[in-house]
Amino acid sequence: MLKLAVYDFDGVLANTIWTGYASHRRICRSFNIHFAWSDHSGDDFQDWRNWVSGNWRDNLERLGLMDRVEEAMEIYGSVADDRGIPSLVKGMDRTVAGLENCLQVILTLNMRKRVLHFLEKHGLMSKITATYGAGDLSFDKPNPGALTEVMEDYGVSPEETVYVGDTLEDVWFANESWSGFNWNGRV
């Protein structure tokens, strides 16, 4: 029996793809890195989507910015602030409502305050049991210990848990955490 649904945030609940794209553009511009994906539509945007990882640390490492993570994350935050609260991914309101008989939590590398603003705007605050953002657990995503810790917090087994993600990295994360996985087929 399903007792716990754990959602990724970006791309699963929140439509943040354009925020990510704009953030990468601004980060590259700020650090004088060539941004190869300049067109907002067509092949350049699709090439960027194929390159980008769901893990911001991986993206910053690819750009050679691991020694400037805090500066880059401040830029990401300013872009997110400029763009405002993202839209809800189509159909996820029905998914959340359909799972109202189990605990539902969000596990993300995003800042918790941003996620809470999103939930409030979209009327989902009462449906989500908890939100775990960057630094809230002993481990952050994509370390499998993060999902294991969430399951332990609620006293549920992997067989009673589903993780809902949207990237191949989410498949790895869920499998390494011994969790069931619901992949929506988009990468």
H and E string: EEHHHHEHEHEHEHE
Described by the principal axes of the CA atoms, the overall outline is globular
Can you tell me the CATH architecture of the largest domain? 3-Layer(aba) Sandwich
Q: Could you give the count of β-strands?
A: 7
Our measurement of the CA-to-CA distance between the termini, rounded to an integer number of angstroms, reads 28 Å
How much helicity do the residues have?
Answer: 40-55%
Total domain modules: 2
* CATH class division of the largest domain: Alpha Beta
**What is the arithmetic mean of pLDDT?**
86
Largest sheet: 5 strands, parallel
- Using only C-alpha atoms, the radius of gyration works out to 16 Å
CATH level 3 topology of the largest domain: Rossmann fold
Structural class: alpha/beta
Spatial strand arrangement across the major sheet:
5-4-1-6-7
| Strand content range | 5-15%
| Contiguous runs where pLDDT drops below 50 for at least 5 residues | none
Description:
The two termini are 28 Å apart. It contains 8 helices and 7 strands, in the order ββααααβαβαβαβαβ. Strand 4, helix 6 and strand 5 (130-132) form a beta-alpha-beta unit. It folds into 2 domains: 4-15 and 87-183, HAD superfamily/HAD-like (Rossmann fold, 3-Layer(aba) Sandwich), CATH 3.40.50; 17-83, no CATH class. Helix 1 (17-30) packs across helix 4. The chain is of the alpha/beta class. The mean pLDDT is 86.
